[in-house]
Design goal:
The chain has no helices and seven strands. It is mainly β. The two termini are 20 Å apart.
Amino acid sequence: ATNFKATAGKIHAIYASNVNAAVRYLKLYNIAAAPTVGTTVPDLTLILPINGACNMTFNPPMDFSVGISFALTTEATDAGTTAVSANETVVNLMYN
C-alpha cells in the first residue's frame, strides 16, 4: 500500500505492467494516506494481465478529491490482501 499524493489530484493516465505468470490487480484509492488493504474500499481496481500491461488514459482526468493512493494485490476482491512480490509490477501514474 502506497500513498502517492497526500492532497487532491487528477490522474491523466496509467501505465502499469506485470511480468508474473499470474494476473495482478492495481487498486486506486481516494485517500490522503496509505490504504489499509482489505479494509479500505478501492475507488478503482484494474487487472494487470499475465505478462502484460494495462495502459489507460482518462479524458477528462480521473478526479481524486482527497489524495491518490494505490496497492497491488494478487486478488481482485476489495477484501483481498495478498501483496505481490518484488519486481513483478511497474506502475506509472501521470497526475497533477
